[in-house]
Amino acid sequence: MAGIRDKHRKSFLGIFTGETFVLRRIRASEFMAHLGMLPGDNSETLSDQLKSLGKKIEERSADPTGERDLTRFYLERGVRSPKIFFGDYDDCPDDQIHVDDLSDDAESLVRAISDYSFDFSGFKKKMDELLQKLKPASAGPGGEALLPAPDGAAPEGDGA
Description:
By secondary structure, the protein is mostly helical. It is built from six helices and five strands; from the N terminus they run H-E-E-H-H-H-E-E-E-H-H.
């Protein structure tokens, strides 16, 4: 019988290493704090926060040092086992795998951890269902509907 912790972990088979990695989810607040953003900052709209987050990720990815930093962040926090060692190659313990031995599994692991941690498809589906139940609202004179009707019909009212 699987334990509670097993429900909150995911296995990932490394194509290049042949190693089975056990992953855990990374909290969005951990990720944002790592990028230097304060989660829950109410001075910006959610849209502005997401744009800022995207910009910071893009900046980090464009810089080789920033990309390595993000990769290390994901691997340190998202891989439960085997532990990944980032120190001097000759000092790597026998029960850990050195980051240099991951080959292209490093990028695959980062992608898998990100997908596992930030999978909002279920949330998006629920929101889409909720929005479809709502009546479309007019943006005002000459404006477009803020929410399209489920059947594609125009919003009620004359829009003038």
